[in-house]
Write a structure and sequence with these properties.
eight-stranded mixed sheet; 15 helices; alpha/beta; two-stranded antiparallel sheet; about 45% helix; about 375 residues
Length: about 375
C-alpha cells in the first residue's frame, strides 16, 4: 500500500504552480464532467486551461478512431453526441501519458474496470496528485467491501474524495439545473478545490465530510433503481414505486451505517442521498433496463438488454446488487435487507420480477436501523 498524501501542495512563491486536470474515463458521465471542468479551467487562474481526457480507444462504424473524432470535432460522438466538450479538452488513448503531468485526477469509469486501471497507474502519477471518484460501485474482497475511493487511495497513495448526486448526465449536458455532493475526509481545502472545479451556474456543488456515506449513497441507490424499474415494468403504479423507494432508502442507510460507523444521518439528506435516489428511480439507465427486464418476464438477460439499449454504456445496478448480496451473505445479514436480497435474486433468475413486492411478507429478522456494533 502506498503512503497517502493528504496535503495540498504549499508554495510560498508569488505565483504558485497551477493545477492540471486529467479525467480518467470518457463515457456519458465522463464526457459531461469534462465539459463542466473545461469551462471552469478557462476561467480560474489556479488551473491550467488544458484538460486531458483518457479515452478507451474504439473504432467507430466509419472506421475512424474515437479519440481522433473527439479531438477533431470537440464532441464525443458515441457517448455524448451533439454536445461540445470545450476546445481545451484533449482526448488521449494512452492512459499513462494522459495522467503524467496531472495533479488533479478525476476517475469516472465503470467500477469493474478500476482495479486494472489503478495497477497501470502505480508509479506513473505525480507525488502531489489528488483524486476524486465519480464512480458508483464497490469491490468485494475476502476481508469485506472496498469502496472505489479506498481502492484508489490504497493503490495509488493519493487522497481521494468522491462526487455523487442527482446527476443524470444528459440533463446536465444541456445545462439543466442540478446538484452534487463532494465527500471528503479531513482536508476542507482539498474539498473546496474540487467544488470550485465542478461548480457552474447550473451545477451546484457542496462539500460533506463523509466520504463513505456519500459514496455508499451513490452506489446503493442503483440497486434500488433496479427495483423501481421492476415496478414500472410490471405497471404496479406510483404508490408501489414510492414504497419501494422508501424501503430502499431505509436499507441504504442501514447497510451504510453497519459497514462504516462514521456515516452521518445528515448525508442521506444531501444531493447524494435522497435526491439521487429519487432521480435514479424516475430516470436513468438502471431503471430503464430493469423495466424492460420485467416486461419480458425475466426471459431476456440484463447483458442482452444492456447491449441493445445502452449503446456501449454499462449498467451498474446489477453488478452492484451482486456485490451487495455477497457482502450480506458473508456477514449473515441477508434477512436484514430483504429488498437488496430480492433484487439480486430476481436479476439472477432465482425469483420472478413479481417477487419485488412479495418479499415484504418476510419481515426483516432484525431492524436495519441498528448500532453498527450489534452484529460484529
Amino acid at each position: 500500500m502506498a503512503p497517502i498524501n493528504n496535503n495540498v501542495q504549499i508554495n510560498n512563491n508569488e505565483h504558485p504552480p497551477k493545477y492540471k486536470v486529467t479525467i480518467v474515463g470518457s463515457g456519458n458521465w465522463g464526457s459531461v464532467a469534462s465539459k463542466l471542468i473545461a469551462s471552469n479551467t478557462l476561467k480560474l487562474s489556479s488551473f491550467h486551461d488544458e484538460v486531458k481526457m483518457w479515452v478507451f480507444e474504439e473504432t467507430l462504424p466509419s472506421g475512424e478512431k474515437l479519440t481522433d473524432v473527439i479531438n477533431q470535432t470537440n464532441e464525443n460522438v458515441k457517448y455524448l453526441p451533439g454536445i461540445k466538450l470545450g476546445r481545451n479538452v484533449v482526448a488521449d488513448p494512452d492512459l499513462v501519458n494522459a495522467v503524467r503531468d496531472a495533479n488533479m485526477l478525476v476517475f469516472v469509469t465503470p467500477h469493474q474496470f478500476m482495479e486494472g486501471i489503478c495497477k497501470k497507474l502505480i508509479g506513473n502519477i505525480r507525488s502531489d496528485a489528488q483524486a476524486i471518484s465519480l464512480i458508483k460501485g464497490m469491490e468485494v474482497k475476502k476481508e469485506g467491501p472496498c469502496m472505489i475511493s479506498t481502492l484508489i487511495s490504497q493503490q495509488l497513495g493519493v487522497n481521494c474524495c468522491v462526487l455523487m448526486g442527482a446527476n443524470i448526465a444528459n440533463e446536465i449536458a444541456v445545462e439543466k439545473f442540478s446538484e452534487a455532493t463532494v465527500g471528503y475526509r479531513g482536508n476542507r481545502e482539498i474539498a473546496e478545490n474540487w467544488v470550485q472545479l465542478f461548480s457552474t451556474s447550473y451545477f451546484m456543488v457542496s462539500a460533506c465530510q463523509d466520504v463513505e456515506g456519500v459514496e455508499l449513497c451513490g452506489t446503493l441507490k442503483n440497486v434500488v433503481a433496479i427495483a423501481a424499474g421492476f415496478v414500472d415494468g410490471l405497471d404496479m403504479g406510483n404508490n408501489t414505486k414510492a414504497a419501494i423507494m422508501r424501503i430502499g432508502l431505509r436499507e441504504m442507510k442501514g447497510l451504510s451505517k453497519l459497514l462504516f460507523s462514521s456515516v452521518k444521518d445528515s448525508t442521506f439528506f444531501e444531493s447524494c442521498g435522497v435526491a439521487d435516489l429519487i432521480t435514479t428511480c424516475l430516470g436513468g439507465r438502471n431503471r430503464k433496463c430493469a423495466e424492460a427486464f420485467a416486461k419480458n418476464g425475466g426471459k431476456r438477460s440484463f447483458d442482452e438488454l444492456e447491449a441493445e439499449m445502452l449503446q456501449g454504456q454499462k449498467l451498474q445496478g446489477v453488478s452492484t446488487a451482486k456485490e451487495v448480496y455477497e457482502v450480506l451473505k458473508h456477514k449473515g445479514w441477508l434477512e436484514m435487507f430483504p429488498l437488496f436480497t430480492t433484487v439480486h435474486e430476481i436479476c439472477t433468475g432465482r425469483l420472478p420480477p413479481t417477487a419485488i413486492v412479495e418479499y415484504s411478507e418476510h419481515k426483516p429478522k432484525f431492524p436495519v436501523a441498528v448500532s453498527p456494533t450489534t452484529f460484529q
